[in-house]
From TrEMBL:
GO CC terms in record: lysosome
GO molecular function: alpha-L-fucosidase activity
EC number: 3.2.1.51
Signal peptide: 1-25
Stated name of the protein: alpha-L-fucosidase
Keyword Hydrolase tagged: yes
Enzyme's top EC category: hydrolase
């Protein structure tokens, strides 16, 4: 035997032992099949590629992670001073009186969530500004110092009662970042205090806790403060099912460190059913747009043991858990993704006029891609300044819930012939697919129309295993492949063109270990008129067309959007009114400026979602007079070419003074401008600036300063209304501050309004 062969013996033996274990655990009845599985499995130095794959197939969710997966569709609520200042990120020094809340209707929140089919809500108990929404013993920077209910109000208490009333689980977002504790002269964040043994919770005279549990931790002032507030949240507001930790830090001070392992001990003891987001419990999907990966494995490789880690970096890559990625890890850990986004532009409520709301088509599509793509859908609904969800948001939530129920509330495989373990509603039944069971057939009592098919692996007991599969339908006497897909995990929703059939076939094509399925179902989604896209060309002509559906396939060479829009007509308005059946029919591009175009599609008297676009002055006569600098591929003319994918970019480090000067062609009175940042790159976001006016392009008048927040995470267009309109021919945008400390400025599109 050669030395190289001897080196392979441990890996071979280990693989054989694992295979023997799987085989030996097999019982006569597959229902009693048990594998040796763990939430975290260590990779040994002598593990081969095959043994790592086999280990990955035996990583399973914890009880709390499994419950989080089963929640599927959950709510985020961003509420606080930003709601009233109309900013995305506060500075921590807001006077608590700005939280001038007169009314609060958390029952309305929960009714809307219930209508949408949401099972849990996570509220920003404390955002980055440090303002708290509950009656904390440990700070006065919160509702206790606000006009709300004369300082006696408690948002958490009201929401907790409503959650109990409507059967909604409750989670809390407690920001580790705290600008109030940073900026306040007596603030605790980064104050360089000594680490000493301290009792949690710290006793406060006149405010005893009903829960008498105490803990001792060696911590500094800020970690003690954080633990005290965690104790309050976890003991005084009913069961807490999720604790949400954000990784964002608008500002740091004093090298402040977080003792997360102490936080985790407190959470485990006081909220044993809570999953922790942003740590080893659940993870960020990597964007705030509701984008999903085509393949989302939840077995994540780590260089360290995640059970003992204190810091967790965001996992943002397109490929986070392929076999090649697993090979680079030292530990394999089950960690579901939360696909998060907001129903509105931005996390906090700003206004009803300019802040767009996602339409039902968009929310339902994200639901299918996220829940049906092995992740959890976390949708933010920000309450308005009346303490309620806005009517537009409530309408979208209700319509989304109706679509989910109409589509997935009816299983077309009911009474079908096929494996009983997959067709029942028993979550404890499953089917082991041996080599002779990799093709499964389902025969329906009669022919039905179908365009959705859901599959679930038995991840609770056997982990994620299937890596490629296909679905076929029996059509005109032969099998026709409907869709080819990758992994399954907790749930995969297959979407495909409508087909009439009485027989379906599921083929498992590749897997990491013996596949174990838990459930399958078939459904029909009633096609709606498509979401429309409104666009103005560089020549000033407005075009309206259906957006391409976000499906990852083209059936039989046909265009899916074309199939969905047969018999469609598009109607529109330009006077601000909502379009209807009697509105102008769109037939060809038209010239339009300084107003809002609203449009919808109609199919068989079924009205689609309203799309709208606010358009400023025509730009075909504009000229770029001067720019501080620009790259050849990103010259200044690109900021008014009506194309959001192109952009002006000033040169990094060339000058400290970044600006652009434009000639509007004629003297014009303007009352507002809109800055659209580029979404192609994350740098160059203009956070602060000054708008100047000039009649001759030589003598300039400063008109007003502007400020936009959270552009890096939310690169959407921002409208700024001037306090007073003014007449000008030339305009200059002077950059004062660029987000993220970057040294080059970018503008995808600049618009001015009369």
């Amino acid at each position: 035997m050669t030395k190289s062969t001897l080196k392979k013996v441990p890996s071979i033996l280990k693989l054989l032992m694992l295979l023997f274990l799987v085989a030996s655990c097999r019982e006569e009845t597959t229902k009693n099949l048990i594998y040796t599985t763990q939430n975290t499995i260590k990779i040994d130095e002598d593990d081969s590629r095959d043994s790592i794959i086999l280990k990955a197939a035996h990583v399973v969710p914890s009880k709390n992670q499994m419950n989080a997966l089963k929640d599927e569709f959950i709510a985020f609520v961003h509420f606080g001073p930003n709601t009233f200042t109309k900013l995305e990120w506060g500075n921590g020094m807001e006077d608590p009186s700005v939280f001038n809340l007169k009314n609060l209707d958390t029952d309305q929140w929960c009714r809307a969530m219930k209508d949408a089919g949401m099972k849990k809500v996570i509220i920003t108990a404390k955002h980055h500004d440090g303002f708290v929404l509950w009656q904390s013993r440990y700070t006065k920077h919160g509702v206790m110092s606000s006009p709300f209910q004369n300082g006696e109000g408690d948002i958490l208490k009201e929401l907790s009662k409503s959650c109990e009333k409507y059967g909604i689980k409750l989670g809390v977002y407690l920001s580790p970042a705290d600008l109030y504790q940073i900026e306040n002269k007596d603030g605790l964040y980064g104050n360089l205090s000594e680490y000493t043994v301290r009792t949690i919770p710290r006793a406060v005279e006149g405010r005893p806790f009903e829960n008498k549990t105490t803990f001792e931790f060696e911590v500094d002032d800020y970690n003690e403060y954080f633990l005290n507030q965690l104790f309050e949240l976890l003991t005084e507001y009913g069961p807490i099912d999720e604790v949400w930790f954000d990784g964002a830090h608008p500002k740091r001070k004093g090298g402040q460190q977080y003792k997360y392992r102490d936080w985790k001990k407190l959470i485990t003891a006081l909220a044993p059913d809570a999953v922790v987001f942003g740590k080893e419990g659940t993870r960020w999907c990597g964007n705030e747009a509701g984008a999903t990966r085509e393949t989302e494995w939840n077995i994540i490789p780590y260089a360290e043991d995640p059970r003992t880690m204190n810091l967790f970096a965001d996992i943002t890559g397109e490929d986070v858990a392929s076999v090649d990625k697993l090979m680079k890890g030292k530990y394999l850990h089950y960690q579901p993704a939360e696909t998060n986004t907001s129903i509105r532009e931005g996390w906090f409520y700003r206004n009803e006029d300019e802040q767009k709301v996602r339409n039902t088509d968009d929310v339902f599509d994200i639901y299918e891609r996220s829940v049906g793509g092995n992740s959890i859908f976390l949708l933010n609904i920000p309450p308005n300044r009346e303490g309620k969800f806005s009517d537009k948001d409530v309408k979208v939530l209700k319509e989304t819930g109706i679509r989910i129920n109409e589509t997935y509330g009816i299983d077309l495989l009911e009474n079908a012939d096929g494996p009983a373990e997959l067709l029942d509603t028993d979550e404890d039944s499953f089917l082991v697919l041996d080599n002779d069971k990799l093709i499964l057939e389902f025969t329906l009592p009669k022919e039905v129309k179908i365009n959705r098919f859901t599959i679930q692996e038995d991840v609770k007991r056997h982990g994620e295993r299937v890596s490629r599969h296909a679905l076929d339908a029996w059509v005109d006497g032969s099998w026709q492949e409907l869709v080819l897909s990758t992994n399954i995990g907790y749930k995969r929703i297959l979407r495909f063109p409508e087909v009439a059939t009485n027989k379906l076939r599921l083929r498992i094509l590749d897997f990491r270990a013996i596949p174990v399925l838990q459930n399958v179902s078939a459904h029909f989604y009633k096609s709606r008129p498509p979401v429309l896209d409104i666009h103005r060309s560089e020549a000033g002509l407005v075009d309206i067309a259906p957006k391409m559906a976000d499906f990852k396939w083209k059936p039989h060479g046909e265009n899916a959007s074309g199939n969905l829009t047969k018999g469609m007509k598009i109607v529109y308005t330009t006077n601000g009114e909502e379009p209807n059946e009697s509105s102008t029919i769109f037939s060809k591009p038209f010239s339009f400026a300084n107003g809002t175009v609203k449009a919808l599609a109609i199919i068989n008297q079924d009205l689609g979602s309203v799309a709208q676009l606010s358009l400023g002055l025509q730009k075909n006569n504009w000229k770029a007079v001067k720019a501080s600098s620009n790259y050849e591929d990103h010259h200044v003319n690109l900021l008014f070419d009506e194309n959001k994918d192109s952009y002006w970019l000033s040169k990094e480090g060339v000058d400290e003074d970044h600006y652009v000067t434009l000639d509007l062609g004629d003297e014009t009175e303007i009352s507002a401008f809109k800055y659209t940042p580029t979404s192609t790159i994350s740098t160059g976001m203009i956070e602060k600036g000054i708008i100047y006016s000039s009649m001759d392009g030589i003598h300039w008048q400063a008109e007003e300063t502007f400020e936009f927040g959270n552009l890096i995470n939310d690169p959407t267009g921002r409208l700024f209304k001037f306090k007073k309109s003014f007449s000008t021919r030339y305009v200059k945008l002077q950059v004062v501050e660029i987000a993220g400390g970057n040294s080059s400025a970018a503008i995808a599109e600049l618009d001015f309004f009369k």
